[in-house]
């Protein structure tokens, strides 16, 4: 009887953990709702990543050499120039260092 209770308890615990893990991956990890409009110097940017297509606002997330993250609009001319610069700087086969 005790073995049955233990087995049932372990099953319920595993079910709860798996349901919790499944809920965590439902939405995008990071979306931007406000944007930095001031151009950032190329020397201050360590890398970038595009936010998920599931976010309501398309955005680029810049990572500075100081470790900060800034949301910027991908349509801004200075952002397009910065992205081109960063892409040209990458070694073939390497990805952004975010």
UniProtKB/TrEMBL annotation:
It comes from the Eukaryota. InterPro entries: Chemokine_b/g/d, Chemokine_IL8-like_dom, Interleukin_8-like_sf. SUPFAM superfamilies: Interleukin 8-like chemokines. Residues 28-86 form the Chemokine interleukin-8-like domain. Coiled coil: none annotated. The keyword Isomerase does not apply. Keywords: Cytokine, Secreted, Signal. One of its GO terms (cellular component) is extracellular space. One of its GO terms (biological process) is immune response. Gene3D superfamilies: 2.40.50.40. The keyword Signal applies. GO terms for molecular function: chemokine activity. Pfam families: IL8 (PF00048). It is found in: Secreted. CDD domains: Chemokine_CC (cd00272). Residues 1-22 form the signal peptide. This is C-C motif chemokine ligand 17.
